[in-house]
Amino acid sequence: MGRYSRSGVPPHFDYRVKLWESALLIEAALFLTALLAAEVAAEAAALLFLAATEAATLLLLAAAAEVLVVLSKVFRHVLLLG
User: Which residue ranges does UniProt annotate as crossing the membrane (predicted)?
Assistant: First the structure.
């Protein structure tokens, strides 16, 4: 028969329980790390979307200003011809 510790629990059993508890702690840490990484990635994606929206708005405003400049030139030319 195997040797028992003073507590009456086989030494291998105690080692396996500690190993299992350590594995659970590592699994929980990995889960929390993945959850945090997903949250950070979602925040980064939201910031990128916001920046892209602002850039698109600025491009739209610049295009509208360019159209207004061209239209004012066309109207000025039409008035000079008329």
Answer: 20-38, 44-71
**1 inside domain:** no
- The residue ranking higher by pLDDT, 30 or 12, is 30
Q: Is the residue at 49 inside a domain?
A: yes
Domain count of the chain?
1
DSSP line for 12-72: HHHHHHHHHHHHHHHHHHHHHHHHHHHHHHHHHHHHHHHHHHHHHHHHHHHHHHHHHHHHH
Q: Specify if 40 maps to a domain.
A: yes
Q: How confident is the model at residue 39 (pLDDT cuts 50, 70, 90)?
A: very high
Q: How confident is the model at residue 35 (pLDDT cuts 50, 70, 90)?
A: very high
Does the residue 14 lie in any domain? yes
